[in-house]
Design goal:
The protein is mostly helical and about 170 residues long. It has 6 helices and 3 strands. It is about 55% helix and about 10% strand.
């Protein structure tokens, strides 16, 4: 189930990117601190890359991730990266370590996690950024996504149940 959810989110993002032009993809959005849809897309892609890069070594490092700023300017590159990720993340669960930062002493440490837990985190992280992308679409006055775009599955289920209760 966890792979179905993240696949759905990544496919929704890829579908949106196919509907945008390059200018819309890289346009700075004032309500998002001048970030762009491309910037949010890059960030989503890079965090999942961190999990996949760390799979063999057993250590996830979001802190020292490689940032490829071409991903936020090149829509076709971003769409290709999304398709590539969808084809790679279906892996067995395993124990992993997650590198964390200690802000007071500028030290790093590791906490226990699992591959599946990081996939769940990335699903929720992706939904969060899709919600921000939806804000960008509203600012640009583009009606390109459905009402559930960028909405948590639990919220979608809750709303559906509430609608059923109201109609009963």
């Amino acid at each position: 189930m966890i792979f179905k959810q993240i696949t759905h989110q990544f496919q929704a993002l890829a579908t949106l990117l196919a509907l945008l032009n390059d200018e819309q993809f890289s346009q700075q959005i004032s309500h998002l601190g001048n970030a762009s849809i491309g910037g949010h897309t890059r960030h989503i892609i890079e965090l999942l890359h961190c999990v996949l890069r760390g799979y063999n070594s057993g250590e996830v490092d979001y802190i020292n991730r490689y940032r490829d700023f071409n991903l936020e300017k090149n829509r076709s590159m971003a769409m290709s990266a999304i398709a590539d990720l969808i084809n790679k993340f279906l892996l067995p669960d395993k124990k992993m370590l997650l590198k964390t930062e200690e802000t007071d002493e500028e030290l790093t440490s590791c906490v226990s996690t699992t591959y599946f837990r990081e996939i769940v985190y990335n699903t929720e992280h992706t939904i969060h950024h899709l919600a921000l992308i939806k804000v960008a679409l509203l600012e640009m006055k583009l009606d390109l996504v459905d009402d559930n775009f960028g909405m948590a599955y639990s919220t979608i289920k809750f709303k559906a149940a509430a609608m059923q209760a109201c109609s009963a």
